[in-house]
Design a protein that fits this description.
The chain is of the alpha/beta class. It has helices at 21-32, 47-58, 93-104, 116-119, 124-132, 167-177, 195-203, 233-245, 264-271, 307-312, 316-325, 344-354, 385-396, 417-425, and strands spanning 3-5, 12-16, 35-41, 62-66, 69-75, 87-88, 109-113, 136-140, 144-150, 155-156, 159-160, 180-181, 183-187, 207-210, 213-217, 226-228, 250-257, 277-284, 287-295, 302-304, 328-331, 360-362, 365-369, 378-380, 402-405. The protein is built from 14 helices and 25 strands. Helix 5 packs parallel to helix 6.
């Protein structure tokens, strides 16, 4: 599908975004293995999170969905059942990595598959720890889908240090730790988002966290509950960037998740001169939530490297657009971008070349000078949701209509994105 993006005179108004994708995945999995009913409120509308629900249904969990409200009849820690067909995660790397931890603790075999993008994404990072814990794993070339996991019950508790900063790997190990005897430990050299720890505690698991050491006790009793998913800060990033770039803009985004391990985005934007204000700060289902206000401002040059890169890995494409039109941006230590839904460094560089923006890439990042302008162009999303949405924001700053190829890719995480963009540009 092609989507034409018209120049925006400003972004103005108030929006409330769909539920956070990362939290929705975790809540769906944990509510499925909890005892009794759970109601998930404001569940993500993205296709990725529907893939998680579909996988849990295939594992014997009764799930009813009405828009953003999902009713889950939890089967308990040991109540999942063998799926007669492969578990299809679609485009969702989150689903395949985190669900692998739960499947490792089952007494049956499961096969995980996905789309062409998933088939290219290496999964050694989760295969290694669950194998150490006692599961048997067979994968194409040892790392690609289809992945067959022969679970073991109980698993062996381990003390694990991931070789790279990854909240999904941490989650995989912690979820597997639910099925292990004793205490499973994950040691992080660089902190990653802690939605899993928050959600595990909400459902009743014994999780401790101190100075990068996270531990979980095996065989807890997880209990169903009402669970409220805050709006997705990663989705908000596109509109925050657009408002900063387009003169006359002023927007409020309500009910956004403000977990301290995710607000590096807001800290970074503040460091380059963005006038960010937080209103109505409160705690809901273990997560901090608030309203974000921002208006147009000139931004300074930024550098994203080290721990900040890990914290902002999903937002880097749209921050590249902000940097190119603002004060500039240098990104380092981001080799992870090469193995996302697409090679996002290459995708950003290609689309910048299409609209006349200069960029210098490296194996693990790039430098883009500031003060540039977007010329009308046709952008290639390459089927990557974040590339599609990032260059829709770029197109909104242009002097004439821009076109996004495979624009439907946005539906992976944010089906309503173009509707919200139109809403904010027409007020």
């Amino acid at each position: 599908m092609q989507k034409q993006i018209s120049p925006a005179s400003r972004l103005k108004g108030v929006v409330r975004l769909p539920g956070d994708k990362s939290i929705s995945h975790r809540a769906a999995m944990l509510s499925s293995i909890a005892e009794g009913p759970t109601v998930l409120h404001n569940y993500s509308t993205g296709a990725d999170c529907q893939s998680t629900l579909d996988c849990m249904k295939n594992l014997g969990v009764s799930i009813e969905r009405d828009g953003t409200t999902v009713k889950v009849s939890g089967v308990g820690l040991h109540g999942l059942r063998h799926s007669s067909s492969p578990l299809d995660v679609g485009n969702s790397g989150s689903t395949i990595r985190m669900l692998s931890g739960i499947l490792a603790g089952q007494s049956f075999e499961s096969t995980l598959i996905g789309d062409e993008s998933i088939a290219r994404r290496p999964m050694q990072r989760v295969i290694q720890p669950i194998t150490q814990m006692g599961a048997s794993v067979d994968a194409r070339e040892g790392k690609f889908t289809p992945i067959r996991i022969q679970g073991k019950s109980p698993l062996q508790a381990i003390d694990y240090t991931p070789p790279m900063a990854s909240a999904q790997v941490k989650t995989c190990v912690l979820f597997a730790g639910l099925y292990a005897n004793g205490e499973t430990i994950v040691r992080e050299s660089i902190p990653t988002r802690d939605h899993s720890e928050m959600a595990l505690r909400e459902f009743g698991a014994d999780v401790k966290s101190s100075q990068g050491v996270i531990s979980i006790q095996g065989n807890p009793k997880l209990t169903g509950r009402d669970f409220y998913v805050p709006g997705d800060l990663s989705s908000a990033a596109f509109f925050l960037a657009g408002a900063l770039l387009i003169p006359g803009s002023s927007i409020t985004i309500e009910n956004v998740g403000l977990n301290p391990t995710r607000t590096a985005l807001l800290d970074y934007l503040g460091s380059i001169g963005a006038p960010i204000k937080i209103r109505k700060f409160e705690q809901v289902s273990g997560e901090m939530v608030g309203d974000i206000e921002v208006q147009h401002a000139e931004t300074k040059a930024g550098v994203i490297e080290g721990a900040l890169t890990a914290a902002l890995i999903d937002e880097i494409p749209v921050l590249a657009v902000l940097g190119a039109l603002g004060g500039g941006l240098t990104v380092r230590d981001a080799s992870e971008l090469r193995i996302k839904e697409t090679d996002r460094i290459a995708a950003v560089a290609d689309n910048f070349s299409r609209c006349g923006i200069s960029i210098e890439t490296t194996p693990d990042g790039f430098t883009v000078p500031g003060g540039q302008k977007v010329k009308p162009a046709t952008f290639e999303s390459l089927g990557d949701h974040r590339i599609a949405m990032s260059f829709a924001i770029a197109g909104a700053t242009s002097t004439d209509i821009c076109t996004i190829e495979e624009a439907e890719a946005a539906s992976v995480s944010f089906p309503e994105f173009y509707h919200y963009l139109d809403q904010l540009t027409q007020q």
